[in-house]
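Protocol step 4 of 6.
Sequence for Short-subunit dehydrogenase (Rhizobium mongolense USDA 1844) entered exactly as in the expression construct, tag removed. Do not edit the line below.
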Amino acid sequence: MIDRNKKIALVTGASSGIGLVTAQSLAKAGYYVFGTSRKKVAGKPGIAMLICDVTDEGSVQALIAEILQQAGRIDLVVNNAGIGLLGGAEESSIAQAKRLFDVNVFGVARVVNAVLPVMRKQQSGRIVNMSSILGLIPSPYNAFYASTKHAIEGYSESLDHEVRNFGIRVVLVQPGVTRTSFEENLARADQPLPVYDAERARSEALMRKWVEAGDAPQVVADVVVKAATAKKPKLRYSAGKQSRQVRSLRRFMPERLVDRILHKVNEIPA
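Step 5 output, structure tokens:
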């Protein structure tokens, strides 16, 4: 039985990693949480898990209808579901790039479009879209993934201006590299070219090293809770020291210097 005094949150992609820890943190903060996964997953205290494929319009609509039937309202949506893609930009087919955008960008839009009528009727609501430091900077061998996060940045900022007068706010959370399973939701380019083999392998090894030294998922979850509960929310929330550094780098340093620093950080041979 759902406590009607609790606010209702939806977290997509909540079966593991950042999504799971975020769902648990929201439950501890007093929300009743609905989490989603593509396959059936057992729920946890304060978290009801539902099946949803964000690339399927019917699946998203059914999800929102089910939450409304059980809870009667939706106060918070955290769009966390997403996948990665490792490889040179030239190495991915257009079909593979479309699949990535279908999950990371249009999946977010499907959920938002389904929940906005609910929030407008309530005259309140908050949408937290999970971005990344790669929504701020380029990343060799992550060109299409970085493109999806740049798209989410522009989409979210524009949407926030459109829905504020309905009592709804849209905010972005920008994690840095986070200690989650490296292989989790990561695809490889489907048309690999020998000319990129050495640099792609070097880039993958570097990424693994960054992940091992990255922030715990709880760092991101804590920022999501902050973004969700702020009375006067900011548009963007940096999650972790690395994210704050990257945001300052992009905001205050000349483009040429940023390019030089990124070249060095990515250990790209001169």
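Step 6, annotate. Residues 88 and 140 are 7 Å apart (CA to CA).
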